[in-house]
Amino acid sequence: MGPQVRALAPLRGREQHLAQIGANLRRVADSLRSRVVVVEGPPGAGRTRLLAEALELATRNGFAVAGGLPPGAGAPHPGGRAPRPPAGISPPGAGGPAPGAAAAPPGAGSPARGAPPIRGGVRARPPGAPGGTLLAPPGQSAVEAVAIRLRERAGTAPAQVVALDDLHLADHATLTTLCELIADPGARPVLWLLSFTTVGDAVAPHPVPACLGRLRRGLGADRLPELGPLSGDPLAQLVADWAGAPPDAALLALVESVEATPRAVIDLVRGLVEDGEVCVLDGAARLGPPDQGARGPGGGVHLPAPVPRRLSALVQRELRSLSEPTMKALRLAAVLGSPFAPEDLSAMLGEAPVGLLAAVDEAVGRGLLVCGEHDLAFRTEPIWRVLLDSVPPPVCALLRRQAAELLLPRPDGVERAALQLVHVAQPGSTQELRAIAEGSRRLLASDPSTAAALATHCMELLPPGRAEHLRCARTAVEALTRAGDLDRAIALAQETIDEAVRFAAPSPHALAGDLAALRASMSTALLLLGNAQSARRAAGDALAVPEGGPPHREAVVTHLAASYLTGDDSAVEQARRILSAPDDHPRAVRVGAMAFQAFGQWQDGRVGDAVGTLRRAVALDRAGEEAHAVDPRWFLAFALTRIDEYEEAAAVVRSAARSAPAEAGTLAATVPAVLRAPLHLAQGHLDEAEEAARAGVGGAAGPCVPMLAPQAWLVLAFAALRRGALAQAEEHVRTLEKDFPQHTSSPWWAARVLLSAQLAEAQAEPAAAAEVLAEVACREGALRELVLEDPAAAAWSVRCALAAGRPELARQVVDAAELLRARNPQVRSVLAAALHARALAAGDARCLARAGGLHRNPWARAAAAEDHAGLLLESGEEEHAIGELDRAMEAFGALGGDRDAARVRARLRELGVRRRHWTHAKRPVSGWESLTKTERKVAELVAGGLTNRQTARHLFISPHTVGFHLRQIYRKLGIRSRTALVRFRT
After folding, report:
1. Segment 553-581, tens digit of pLDDT
2. What stretches of 337-456 adopt beta strand conformation (E)?
């Protein structure tokens, strides 16, 4: 049994180069004239492998290989299968090799490892190689062998290809012979693939470009872009080839630390796998967990992760070639951190800035440092870590203290000094601990994750039961809350409170103020976590300070919010009392009170007043003064979206995003996504709405804000309903019911009820939706809140009530809409919604047309056109009605409302009008991808448990058509039953 032949790894990052070679092959085939393609790159860049792929491409398209690489030039894949190169190049003559033309074997030209000997600057075939590639006899250069082969095939091969590698090693005589051979006017058409490098031991000026330059005038020549280092997707794919799975961010960053030529990457990844440093977990290649002892002092704050031994050795080998001044500067820079200010490095070195120039130039030129606008940084964290590890720990501690002394007097130096002292501070070092605590407080807004790490480490060095310990705990809790780690924030706060009460039992009053502040911070985290009852209790405890102490403003606002969310009617009255005595309360408390006053105004139907109050609250709140558990911008954005003031809503969302730096993975990054989701939905941008909503519920490993999460889940459910994905919408509703039960005073209660009613109508009949609406109408003011949720909600409710034969319910909806109109004469969306509902109930086509012109909401405008068409049909104006139905169908289709568009299309069919709604697309003959869009919808609905009749009603087609689609689905999926379809989708 012969040796196992392993397939080549796919060629990564060189697709453009291979395509350019393919274009030259086509030119040779079409013009019958020779061409030259020059390939240049540093060692390890994949020149040989690219030539091997080019030869295989030429061979598969009928070219004869008159001279080429040895078999196996390139890198064998660690276990995969190489893709076949593209075809489509037809040399003159037939589609295969000409009679007598030598054909390269299928794997022609693969590995550079164990390369054959060089003769005259080109690779010669090793002994025992198959005869399809060039074999240079002893004492004969490969160029001479090519000349002999071309003469032998002079009358037989219509088009040939020659690949010569490592021409930088050729002497002048060999290059001259090669140029004469290429320029021979009597030769048959040949594509010459010539490869060389100017890196390493090559002599400058390089003779290859000069020699080949003489050919450019009389012969087509194409010099490919230099084969540079890999980056982005090609680099990740190459790592995946050798690691066995796509790399995670940490492994990819590690690989980027080396010179990212294919050979360097392969050597590193293969070595990491052999050393057991890489494992595949959850479908991703990851670095093994670092040794916890490697974190070092300071708990790993502002430190790069430890580096595997193999990579450390590679980086150290590179660093040994640096000059001594550059190495000294880099080691000091590693202590300062990344990024670092050049003036800090200059001060630490005791040199004038001009003394840094040579060292920085060398480090940047070698790819170790990168320049920012105001600072310098290490190109990758592994480089930083290797340099930092090269500084002996005692010396590193001295340097950190020196850096802290240098930084502390500066206006912005406390934060940076804290990042140095956290690694050297010890219990009892009062001044250092004080600096760390102050630095963590200053970093709260800009870098909450680092602030939390500093504060928690400072707590470890302080004795429990002390005021300083409690203050650090409060900073840590606030930082963790801002970073979105709510559970950890609450646990830390509760643990610290219990500990303080136990240690301070003899004199609890001495810590009362600090305990109250910590409880207030914990109450904010509890509120954001969605635990309003516990948040209210914690805020109440914080407010119960000893007599004479001022109430903590964060506790006041949180208590107000939690009271409102738990259905306590006194919250609005409490807000009114605060605002009646503004001088007695801090600005943050007044801002929170105004937000809850606006909630009461909204529930009372005074929409314009509510929006005005929220606008004043935003104006009163100075951005960045203090983090709020209830930011008025959040609720102003929601309110503006509901009344179709999209431009102002978008501006408010941008303002909320700017008020706190959106560090990745923090609440400041998540909240704006929740605010944007309903705005995108209202504007008809379903894809953007779903993307933002998923980010708001903790997608992409980001944090979730449970207090606002119901809004994101509502957007996902409404978007699914618009698309006609009923099973998905129902799943989102179940998530809402299970994880976020809504009290009637909740800001999301009315939207949740509207969603239930619309889902009931889609799954059953209008009568089912009417039942939900009738139940809502029994509660005073509830219908008013419901129709405020969506400018089309009032008209939709009237439509369902009339279809269910309940005109009294339709009158109740109209009355609620009219009351809103009377209380908000200046709010255009309210006027449009009331006019739409009244006109539909009264059958007034003229008023309904006016309502359509008033609507800014695109969904409501399309619904108005559909309703207008219905009234026109009743009056016999069929042609006008068809025009309105066409307008509605096009609008719904453009918005992505597949279900609404299907309903309108069905009404057109009833009028004898058929509108094409499909497109022809190339699909596989079997499998899920072979299904048409309609077949997929049928499959999803049936797999979700719907009968043929229910599916037909949902898609506005006949049960017979559903049966036809099911037969096509079964045939394409290779199944025979509904049960098998359910299993297939699962």
Report:
1. 889 999 999 988 888 878 888 888 999 99
2. 369-371, 376-378
